[in-house]
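Run log, item B.
One chain of 206 residues. Sequence copied directly from the ordering sheet:
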Amino acid sequence: MTKKSNGEILSLPVSSVKIRRHVGFLFLSGFAKMPFQRFVETGRVAKCSHGPLKGKLVTIVDCIDPNRVLIDGPCTGVTRQAYRLNNLHLTKFVLRFPFTAPTRVIRKAWLDADINAKWAETAWAKKAKAQEKRSNLNDYDRFKLRVAKRSRNRMLTVQFRKLKRYASIDGTLYGKKSVRKPKLWKDQLAKRKTKKPTGKTAAAAE
């Protein structure tokens, strides 16, 4: 039941009231989980993506304004300074230290959480390391990589065709089963060589 500005009473359907109460209960009880979990907060570990600090890990110490934050990286060689928020990529790691803590406190929290080892195990760090290694290749290294990929693709093609042939014989691929069992191509080649010639072949040979 609600009142209008002129004093009239407006009645809502019972179903809509129940739906609103049910949705409110879900949000308050924690069933509705927020999809975004990486917030700009004190202690959030981030990766710099621009400038001289590109590729280094830092932690957010304080928020200066909506566009800049105060960062510090005592274990990555980054001094405390202001940095643009648009040039930071937030990670899933968060350090616990007091608000605007000094560098020694941040260093201790960083070492206790073992951020460097945890970061090295992530797929993000492994991909960045592979990209860096690939960018440092010379012409000869790129040539060797291309030859290795060609050899790998050739071996994969041979195995794929063999599995496809086995699947067609077994009935997995086309749905028709065959009585004969799958054999390797070497065995089939040996059988063809030892096979007796037929009448036409024998007459042609004579």
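Observations after the first pass:
- The chain has seven helices and seven strands.
- The CA atoms of residues 96 and 125 lie 22 Å apart.
Flagged for discussion on Thursday.
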